[in-house]
Design a protein that fits this description.
By secondary structure, the protein is of the alpha/beta class. The protein has 3 domains: 72 residues, no CATH class; 173 residues, 3-Layer(aba) Sandwich (Rossmann fold), CATH 3.40.50; 149 residues, Rossmann fold (3-Layer(aba) Sandwich), CATH 3.40.50. The chain starts with 9 loop residues before the first helix and ends in a 9-residue tail after the last helix. α8 links the parallel β2 and β3. The protein has a 7-stranded parallel beta sheet. A 4-stranded parallel beta sheet has the order 10-9-8-11, with helices on both faces. The protein has 19 helices and 13 strands. It is elongated and about 70 Å long. α2 packs parallel to α19, α3 packs across α5 and α15 packs across α16. The chain binds 2-acetamido-2-deoxy-beta-D-glucopyranose (NAG) (4 copies). One 2-acetamido-2-deoxy-beta-D-glucopyranose (NAG) binds next to loops. This is Glycosyltransferase family 1 protein.
Length: 496
């Protein structure tokens, strides 16, 4: 199937491979209260939102400057987070500022029946693969006041349960995936079922999914790891009944994989012996797998004692990285900097031979628990992501990128990375300019002032926090949209 779940350090196994305050609709709870009392306003809001969205896109295109990295970044984010976001657009349109009289007039036009007070959400992870994606999902979903979350997960790995517990949020689980839906007919049927490795889960729990589809009470949230796999005929036919029923959302892990998936789905119609009545356009979202971790308490003087360090991610593979060059550069840094510089190699495989002159400064970090892994990352001053293939810039989302933001450590990133992972702000990275290699950038990082390093790290932390806050808000809105589609008569799809 193209999935590989090898043993190794945390990074390797993670193989998926300022927001303004919204006064009216802070949470799903608020949204549903509004929904119950205001009926069709939601629907109107979404339609209005789509119109505003289109206008905003044109406005953006008309005035966008040259295709600099930051404008491309913004364009990506606008596409996946803003203009598809009915609530944002509706707020900008001023629809939330209407008077009560306006609202009453609108109520009569639509009906939402039996909207549940509590939204039942189940996360189902059928493979042991993506603890950190699970963590981000648990954090965003269990933060919704009206959600009753149950997590079905194979054994948590590498102490990931400690990360989950530290959220201090209420949810049930982890329960074994085999217990999902149980054998007891009184089992709660979720309103939303999140398949955390959707590509595999579809094949692993086909009977249960078929039963849920038949009942028509559950909306599927399909977490996409391999955007290209959705071009396969097998997967298309697996997912088609859900797409036909309008009961599925695809959540991708980065804007670039959303774009790839969107193009893949747009091509679905072209080679199908049973053509679609309408070109399929299921909602595609960008859910960046970032969640809070408790930062280790390192004092300034401890930090000074430890000297400067950076981390390289990836297999210890001489074909992937030129270790001779790497150790030479490290030797030069040590000679020039006259201070303690160390390098952490986060990966697995056969360790390369380390020359004597740098031996005391090279650390092989393998098989760390999540807690130790993030603690180590948060101590270093730069992370070199080392993508194993160019696919991480179009169809797959690297886990190193969110990991560095979670730890609050700047990545060494070039403009292609920033364009693909558009949620990473330029100020959060050590930018690799054209013509530079990673070690040129490490050299600049070492030469930077302590204050500059601190500012970058702070920016990365703030960047992560903005995403975490945005995740909670967006997930609330996405669930709200799904609920409207399930419970409100004649509701239009948000992407019309
Ligand atoms: C929450 O979900 C669990 C199933 O995991 C169910 O047993 C429980 O009754 C639900 N609670 C509420 C308040 O809906
Ligand atoms: C269409 O799908 C079939 C399998 O169903 C495949 O063999 C064929 O190569 C596809 N054609 C194109 C043009 O992709
Ligand atoms: C971190 O360390 C400082 C100084 O040792 C201490 O005052 C502070 O309470 C610690 N904070 C936490 C969260 O442990
Ligand atoms: C240099 O830093 C490393 C890792 O922080 C530490 O283990 C080592 O003792 C330090 N060496 C010196 C000479 O300070």
């Amino acid at each position: 199937m193209g999935f590989s779940f090898r043993k190794g350090s945390v990074m390797e196994r993670m193989g998926y491979s300022d927001e303004t305050k919204f006064h009216q609709i802070e949470s799903l709870g608020g949204a549903l209260d509004a929904l119950r009392t205001k009926g069709s306003r939601m629907k109107q809001k979404i339609i209005a939102g789509s119109i505003v969205s289109v206008l905003l896109v044109f406005a953006f295109l008309a005035f966008s400057p040259d295709t600099t990295t930051s404008s491309l970044r913004q364009e990506q984010l606008n596409k996946w987070w803003k203009t598809h976001d009915g609530t944002d657009a509706a707020i900008e349109n001023g629809i939330w500022n209407k008077t009560p009289e306006d609202q009453e007039a609108e109520v009569a036009q639509g009906t939402c029946d039996n909207v549940p007070e509590i939204i039942q959400v189940a996360i189902l992870e059928t493979v042991r693969a993506h603890d950190e994606v699970d963590a981000a999902l648990v954090h965003s979903l269990a933060s919704q006041p009206n959600v009753n979350l149950t997590l079905y997960q194979q054994e948590p790995r590498f102490g990931s349960e400690k990360i989950f517990h530290a959220f201090g949020l209420d949810y049930a689980g982890p329960l074994h995936p085999d217990d999902f839906m149980g054998t007891d007919k009184h089992t709660t049927i979720p309103d939303f079922l999140v398949l955390t490795t959707c590509e595999l889960a579809l094949r692993q729990a086909p009977k249960r999914l078929e039963a849920l589809l038949e009942q028509g009470k559950t909306r599927l949230i399909c977490i996409v790891h391999h955007s290209d796999h959705w071009a396969e005929e097998q997967r298309k036919s697996d997912i088609r009944p859900w797409v036909d029923a309008g009961m599925i959302d695809f959540w991708t892990l980065s804007p670039h994989t959303a774009t790839f998936l969107s193009n893949t789905i747009a091509a679905w119609d072209s080679n199908d012996s049973q053509p679609w009545d309408n070109p399929p356009s299921p909602p595609i979202r960008v859910f960046v797998p970032i969640f809070p971790v408790v930062a280790p308490n390192i004092t300034i003087s401890e930090k000074a004692m430890q000297g400067l360090s950076f981390a390289m991610q990836g297999d210890y593979d001489p074909h992937r990285r030129d270790y001779k060059h790497i150790f030479e550069r490290l030797g030069n840094f040590l000679a020039e900097a006259e201070r303690n510089v160390s390098m952490h190699l986060l990966g697995q495989g056969n360790r390369p031979e380390v020359p004597e002159n740098v031996k005391a400064h090279v650390f092989f970090d393998q098989g760390l628990s999540y807690t130790d892994f993030y603690a180590l990352l948060s101590k270093v001053s730069a992370v070199l992501p080392g993508f194993a293939s160019p696919e991480y810039l179009d169809r797959k989302a690297s886990s190193s990128v969110p990991a560095s933001l979670i730890a609050g450590t700047p990545l060494v990133a070039d403009r292609r990375l920033l364009e693909a992972y558009a949620y990473v702000e330029e100020e959060s990275v050590w930018l690799q300019e054209d013509g530079e290699n990673e070690f040129d950038v490490v050299g600049r990082m070492l030469a930077a002032s302590a204050k500059e390093r601190e500012q970058k790290s702070q920016h990365a932390k703030d960047n992560a926090q903005r995403i975490i806050d945005g995740n909670v808000r967006r997930v609330g809105e996405w669930l709200e949209t799904g609920i409207i589609q399930m419970y409100c008569a004649g509701s239009e799809g948000e992407d019309d």
